[in-house]
Amino acid sequence: FHEDVKARGVLIVVEGLDRAGKTVQCQLLLDALQQRGHQVKYIKFPDRNSLTGKIINGYLQGQAQQDDHSIHLLFSANRWEAAQRIRSDLSNGITIIVDRYSYSGAVYSAAKENPDLSLEWAWQPEVGLPRPDLLLFLSISSEETAKRGGYGEERYETDAMQSKVRHLFERLLSMNHGHDVHLIDARFPVDQVAKELLNSTLGHLSERKPLETFAKLR
Ligand code: FDM
Which ligand 1 atom sits closest to the C-alpha of 109? Predict the structure, then answer.
């Protein structure tokens, strides 16, 4: 007796510093997977269009001030708003490529070095969100991204912030074991990086194990 269960979609997260090339790479991965006949969606956090997203957008553009904890929880709420949709798409066989997720959420807030806002504190509201099957981390130094030029005008787009963010990403990835993290060297030309992302992804495209959720940091 065997049941022919349709494989669920795969949850893929792409993370990295500002200017690492996340958005371009997500687009290329989306195209490559669609060309191979997969049903794929791209989503991005923060989603600036939702109710919380509008507040977040105002904050990032410097139009509004927010308490560090308060804005942190709004970024998290912005993901929780999408969680049910993510689950149902995955179970309908749709693979989702997520541009920034809880990892950015925790490290950007912790990088503010507010003594009451540790990395552990920042991770806590993420506990229970769908855990990606695959985390693709575009690895690049803050010096390299600075050379790419054109940091925008938004909050956080400074060398000092980026280098703290980089160190915190390293700490977080080393603590949050148990899932598949691929470090991809993002210094190489766009199409070379794209090939690596695709190769890392192809091995994961027929997930049968149940979707897991984020646990507390250990
Ligand atoms: N960011 C992003 C956070 O501080 N917390 C989060 O939870 C997320 C998802 O917001 F500086 C930061 C990271 C970045 C900014 O920029 C969003 P982009 O260019 O829209 O990714």
Answer: 4
C-alpha of 104 from chain center: 6
- The answer as to whether 1 is a domain residue is no
Rounded distance between C-alpha atoms, residue 120 and residue 135, angstroms = 20
Residue 216 lies in a domain: no
Pocket test for ligand 1, best of 15, 18, 104 (most atoms within 8 A of CB): 104
CATH of the domain at 87: 3.40.50.300
| pLDDT tens string 157-196 | 998 999 999 999 999 999 866 668 999 999 999 999 999 9
- Domain hosting residue 85, numbered range: 11-203
With respect to residue 4, please indicate whether it lies within any of the assigned structural domains.
Answer: no
125 secondary structure, DSSP code: G
What sign does the dihedral 52-47-189-10 (CA atoms) show? Answer: positive
ipTM over 0.90: yes
Bridge pairing between strands 134-139 and 180-185: parallel
- Residue of the CA atom closest to atom 7 of ligand 1: 105
Total domains, the chain: 1
